[in-house]
Amino acid sequence: MGGDGKVFTFEEVTVHNNHKDCWLIINGKVTIEISIYSKIKAETKVLLLRRGSGVWEGYSEPAEHIVPYPKYVYDVTKFMEDHPGGDEVLLSSTGQDATDDFEDVGHSDSAREMMGEYCIGDIDASTVPQRTKYRTPKQPHYNQDKTSEFIIKILQFLVPLAILGLAFGIRMYTKST
Ligand code: HEM
């Protein structure tokens, strides 16, 4: 990776957000990550590798061996015109962690190789705001047993009343005829 080991904060990266000066945060070097993964696997018995909030994380036993992978900062200003996906998508990926956008496109290995040319450093992961995850609103607790119990109680009260009303009605009707 290029960039002379520079580490940028999220704030520093997100000000570069126009056609003449466009920086992105992407962690697209999956091939590298896989090799890191097998190294960690050998050393610390990693149980699984999963991608969470744009970062590849190795989870291992014991838990203190959780390894967050670095994200990289890319200055794609010179690539804007030549990007096969167009410059607008690159611009719209500024100001955030663009990893998911980049991965969703399914970039080829050659696209990933090209990234090295534009890498200018690492991002300080602690400064990147987490993407808010959508949580389904909690449903009100619905207790079916209690509801059917309630209906039975109402019916127990209403049925005799209805029978009484019907009997009364018939009696009134027969009396008047
Ligand atoms: C340094 C960063 C990037 C590099 C070097 C890069 C490179 C490339 C290359 C070489 C292609 C041609 C197809 C391929 O080989 O996969 C491509 C296509 C594309 N890229 Fe990127 N890209 C970068 C970032 C992004 C980002 C952040 C987005 C945001 C969504 C994006 C969206 C697209 C789209 C939409 C296409 C067109 C896909 C298609 O029509 O099949 N790229 N990119």
UniProtKB/TrEMBL annotation:
Signal sequence residues: none
Presence of the UniProt keyword Nucleotide-binding in the record: no
TM region positions: 150-170
Keyword Transmembrane recorded: yes
GO molecular function, one term: heme binding
Record keywords, A-Z: Electron transport, Endoplasmic reticulum, Heme, Iron, Membrane, Metal-binding, Transmembrane, Transmembrane helix, Transport
Main location: endoplasmic reticulum
Pfam families: Cyt-b5
Origin: domain of life: Eukaryota
GO cellular component: endoplasmic reticulum membrane
Membrane topology: Single-pass membrane protein
InterPro entries: Cyt_B5-like_heme/steroid-bd, Cyt_B5_heme-BS, Cytochrome_b5
Subcellular localization: Endoplasmic reticulum membrane
PROSITE patterns the UniProt entry points to: CYTOCHROME_B5_1, CYTOCHROME_B5_2
Cytochrome b5 heme-binding domain boundaries: 5-124
Family, similarity comment: Belongs to the cytochrome b5 family.
Protein's name according to its UniProt entry: Cytochrome b5 heme-binding domain-containing protein
Native source species: Populus tomentosa (Chinese white poplar)
Organism placement in taxonomy: Eukaryota, Viridiplantae, Streptophyta, Embryophyta, Tracheophyta
